[in-house]
Amino acid sequence: MLYNGQRPWTAPKRFRALMEGQDAFGEELLDFEYVLIDVERYTERELLELSNTIGAVFLLDQTADRQQLHDRLSKLMGTVRSMPEELKKSISELAGEYGRKAAAGAA
Q1: Which end is more exposed in the chain, N or C (fewer Cβ atoms within 10 Å of the end residue's Cβ)?
Q2: Mapping DSSP to helix (H, G, I), strand (E, B) and coil, where does residue 33 land?
Q3: Element of type H or E holding 3
Q4: Cα-based torsion angle of the residue sequence 46, 51, 52, 57 in order, rounded to the nearest 10 degrees
Q5: What sequence ranges are listed for the domain Transposase (putative) YhgA-like (predicted)?
Q6: CA Rg, the chain, in Å?
Q7: pLDDT given for residue 99 in this prediction
Q8: Which residues 6+ apart lie within 8 Å of 42 measured at CB?
């Protein structure tokens, strides 16, 4: 489960716990625990240390304003330079989108 909400994840991670009346199914109901990736709980340092596309995207997703976006893009330059051209373009488009959102929020 990929989650990027501001508040910590509180829902159960076990499938059966999400099902109302799950006891009626006995052992027949599938049960598993999903892996939660809570993007907002990663620190900037942890994401930069990943040095990959996922870390870059998650870090940009956490960006609050234009100055922070600029600072984070500067820190990500080494990672972005090592990416294939297609991913560089995607990161550039994503950064532009976050820049527009930050500008709209500041207005």
Answers
A1: C
A2: strand
A3: strand 2-3
A4: 50
A5: 2-84
A6: 18
A7: 86
A8: 58, 62
User: How far is residue 71's CA from residue 63's CA, in Å, rounded to a whole number?
Assistant: 10
What pTM does this model have?
Answer: 0.73
Q: What is the pLDDT of residue 98?
A: 85
- pLDDT per residue rounded down to tens, the chain (107 residues): 999 898 999 999 998 888 888 888 888 888 899 999 999 999 999 999 999 999 999 999 998 888 999 999 999 999 999 989 999 999 999 889 988 887 887 65
| Tokens matching residue 59 | 């870090």
**Residue found by looking up tokens 């989650």 in the block:** 3
